[in-house]
Design a protein that fits this description.
By secondary structure, the chain is of the alpha/beta class. It has a single domain (6-203), classed as 2-enoyl-CoA Hydratase, Chain A, domain 1 (Alpha-Beta Complex), CATH 3.90.226.10. It contains 11 helices and 8 strands. The chain has helices at residues 33-47, 71-74, 80-99, 115-122, 149-156, 158-167, 173-178, 189-203, 208-218, 225-239, 243-255, and strands at residues 6-12, 18-24, 54-59, 103-108, 112-113, 125-129, 134-135, 184-186. It has a 6-stranded mixed β-sheet, with helices on both faces. The chain has a two-stranded parallel sheet with strand order 5-7.
Amino acid sequence: METNGKVITEIDSGIVRHGRIIFSHPKSNSLPSELLRKISYEISVLGENHDVRVIILQSEGNGAFCAGASFDELLTIDGFERGKEFFMGFARLILTMIRCPKVIITRVQGKAVGGGVGIIAASDYALALNTASIRLSELSLSLGPFVVGPVVEKKIGLSAFSALSIDTEWRDASWAKSFGLYTNVYNTIEELDSTINSLSEQISKYNPEAISKLKSIFWEGTEHWDKLLESRAEMSGKLVLSRFASEAIELLKKKS
């Protein structure tokens, strides 16, 4: 596996007519800038592909779904502009997902942290294993879930988002389902994949124009998010330069 991770896109233009994006990184499928750009690009390309009716987003392996931001890259940030640009990678991915005209189904086979939770929240339909716990750990790193905050809050509500942000504790898959982050939870990979395949086939038969209009309703009220998420990226870009953040990230990196 490549050091900076990789993204593989598979297209099935047969009965199901779906595009599958698989991202991976050797460190628990974490997300450096390059990987964020690749995922955003592939979603944009599939969104314009008329042979693709549904997009499935998933990570590689049977371990973590996504460990969030790359600690290695966070520790190399040495200025505000670079910090802002790193967090803009998450902002652009979220915007690409919610503005894509195709339904995005996210397959969550394991734990998700920080930015990984943001990806799940930006999906239109997320299905998970019963072991797929979630956590917003940003405050424990002396940062905050600023960029992913709007999309997570929109999906699970302010009260649940506040609790998840403040205590930074793990929530199990049942909790995530109860607050609408997951549509359903399964006991086995086989059940999870079978459901995703059946759902993809079902959606692929629907009118693409109706799907596109439905998505615009799902994400109504996000028209100003370009500016909002940029301002949130600026917050994180400043905070990541603090002594508090560098010490907390370094400590957590040693433990991981």
